[in-house]
Design brief:
Elements lengths: L5 E12 L2 E13 L4 E5 L6 H8 L7 E6 L2 E2 L5 H7 E4 L8 E2 H6 L7 H10 L3 H5 L8 E2 L7 H15 L3 E5 L7 H15 L3 E5 L3 H4 L4 E6 L2 E7 H5 L5 H8 L1 H4 L2
Parallel strand pairs: 3-10, 3-11, 6-9, 9-10
Antiparallel strand pairs: 1-2, 1-4, 4-5, 7-8, 11-12
Helix pairs in contact: 6-7
Length: 250
């Protein structure tokens, strides 16, 4: 697939534990084309988080190569990579600072009008209007935010940077209906006209993906188009749909 925005080839990653080398990823190969949405599934410890960290170059593979827009990641300056790839994790870091500083990562060049436009697009204006001092409101730690609200604020950070590739580690905890609707709308807006990779835990998210990648034991158990895998009764993905993803992907 020559037009792939992200191409991973034969990725392997090991760690040293005492006198042993532990393989976390082995021979991982996949492509993500512009505007497509890849859902990564797998049980805890299967290598999902390690894979996304490799894409962000929080560390490098022992073997293999990752190319973004045809360029090997090792040849991309880290500042440029951070501008082209955005990530939202389950654990959102909030600073003891104003809402403005938390959303912009202390970048004074981002105007308030742009921040408010993004909050409106994410349907967060009611939350913003409840703040005592607007963008000058100081958040202390979690600032009284729910996990879902904190993650949507992390989406706002990504919107303000406007990267072409978004990586989302979806919240796996059970959410109340209102927060779940908020998350769903935010994900829709986040992925609109962008390329997405999501570590998915919920069926609603998975069923919007173009392709499915299932990891088990650091290896690819299954990889292909969602509908093709869904319609193949012998596929691992079809088995997950029958069994119930929440019972397996923990």
């Amino acid at each position: 697939m020559s037009d792939a925005i992200l191409r991973c080839r034969s990725l392997s990653r090991t760690y040293r534990s005492g006198s042993r080398d532990l393989t976390v990823l082995k021979d991982i190969t996949f492509d993500v084309s512009p505007g497509e949405f890849l859902a990564i599934l797998g049980p805890s410890g299967s290598g999902k988080t390690t894979l996304t960290r490799l894409i962000l170059r929080l560390y490098d593979p022992i073997k293999g190569a990752i190319r973004l827009g045809g360029v090997e990641l090792r040849d991309v300056a880290l500042a440029e990579l951070r501008g082209r790839v955005g990530m939202v994790t389950q654990d959102v870091q909030l600073f003891h600072a104003t809402v403005r500083e938390n959303l912009t990562f202390f970048d004074p060049s981002i105007p308030d009008q742009r921040i408010l436009a993004v909050l409106e697009d994410l349907e967060l204006l009611p939350w913003y209007q409840s703040l005592a001092n607007g963008l000058d409101t100081v958040l202390a730690g979690s600032g009284g935010l729910s996990a879902g609200e904190a993650q949507v604020l992390a989406f706002t950070r990504v919107f303000l940077r406007n990267p072409g590739l978004v990586i989302l580690d979806e919240a796996s905890s059970r959410l109340d209906p209102a927060t779940e609707r908020l998350i769903e709308r935010a994900v829709d807006r986040l992925l609109a006209e962008r390329t997405g990779i999501i570590i998915a835990h919920r069926l609603a998210t998975v069923m919007r993906a173009d392709d499915i990648l299932i990891l088990e034991g650091g290896r690819i158990r299954e990889y292909g188009q969602r509908e093709a895998l869904r319609n193949d009764p012998g596929s691992r993905f079809a088995e997950l749909l029958r069994t119930g993803m929440e019972e397996v992907l923990v």
